[in-house]
Amino acid sequence: MTKAQAATRPATSRNYPKGERRRAQIIKAALTAFGQVGYRHASTVQLAAACGVSRAGLLHHFPTKESLLEAVLEERELQDDQHFFRTDGDPIDGLEYFASMIRLVAHNQANPLVVSLFAVLSSEATTADHPARPYFAARYERARSQMTQAVEDLAARDLLHSHVAPSGLAVSLIALIDGLQVQWLLSPDTIDMPEHLRSMLRNVISVELPG
Amino acid sequence: MTKAQAATRPATSRNYPKGERRRAQIIKAALTAFGQVGYRHASTVQLAAACGVSRAGLLHHFPTKESLLEAVLEERELQDDQHFFRTDGDPIDGLEYFASMIRLVAHNQANPLVVSLFAVLSSEATTADHPARPYFAARYERARSQMTQAVEDLAARDLLHSHVAPSGLAVSLIALIDGLQVQWLLSPDTIDMPEHLRSMLRNVISVELPG
DNA sequence: CCTACCGATCGGTAGG
DNA sequence: CCTACCGATCGGTAGG
């Protein structure tokens, strides 16, 4: 068990494998439901039914709907960490960073539930008083900060095309990745997300990406 | 009254100014509500209350919630037409097209309600059985087709940087515009949507845009 | 985890 | 037959 898990799960849970399995099942069902109908429209009654427990049973594991949302976002964050965000503190290699980003987008494209979750929740979270708004605001700020470092690394090594403005490029590339998800969810057969990202990166980076 | 309006509004409505005003009021309130909490979570009861009519009164104008959604999308479409989509049939001037696109994004940035409506509805509509899914699928297909023509016009006139791949560029630029909306709604003070679009267009177009 | 509930609200429809 | 609503209520479901 990692440190992050220990901080978010009750320490006793390791001793109750059945409860742990149920908890994981509920999180997975909630991830699916939130991605399909949004957080606000998802109902704990239907979630409980989908997991074969009563609504009171579900509320034993997650006392409020909001606590379930937190668990879903944490779960998703852990998956990202595994694939991508390993460079805490280390200086960022811009080429490696964007190669990893393409791999992450390709990985997401193989997991429609995860894409749907983030496409639906991130825009739902822009509205006032949404419980996930602070999470997404912080997440985007962190992503922009990290990608800006990657862009600046490329600029310092003269790996951007000469006419490309590095300022604001991170914001636009994150926007590109987000926007591709909506078009892909609507037309999965005509949109290839990692290919479009790679193509746009080729438009601004003057050397080929590794990997 | 334009052809589009005549096709969607009852022909008799012009003779009932009070009903017409009420109808416009309801559409505006629905546009706000759908953008704030999404279509599914918005309630006709609250909409009616916000308009000072009973729920039955609201349903007199819009017999179903879905018919109200249609009216909101048509209303928004008409606004777009006024500002932008005037080139039906005509060949597209790529430079004019993207200059208009920047103006449209700037116009949207001055109207948070409209941005919120589209950011929230477009992703909500990606989910199965959403009544607006066909609308958004068709809208994106049309937008891609139109922007692809603009990109091809630029390519034919040699106005793209030599290393830029025109294929798929329209998809990515539309994705960029959509993605910027989410970041802007979460951080309106740190994101300038038209500026980021202009900057990205400068990265691929080798001449300055008009206007 | 269950049964048994609460105050309220959902989208849609009735007759007048 | 039209409009612009009204008060009441249908069977179900919401989060807690």
TrEMBL record, chains A, B:
Positions of the HTH tetR-type domain: 20-80
SUPFAM superfamilies for the chain: Homeodomain-like (SSF46689), Tetracyclin repressor-like, C-terminal domain (SSF48498)
Gene3D superfamilies, per database record: Tetracycline Repressor, domain 2
Keywords of this entry: DNA-binding, Repressor, Transcription, Transcription regulation
Region (Disordered): 1-20
The UniProt record lists the keyword DNA-binding: yes
The organism of origin for this protein: Streptomyces liliiviolaceus
Designated name of the protein: TetR/AcrR family transcriptional regulator
Cited PROSITE patterns: HTH_TETR_2 (PS50977)
Domain of life, per lineage: Bacteria
Residues in the DNA-binding region annotation: 43-62
Family matches, as InterPro entries: BetI_C, Homeodomain-like_sf, HTH_TetR, Tet_transcr_reg_TetR-rel_C_sf
Gene Ontology MF, one: DNA binding
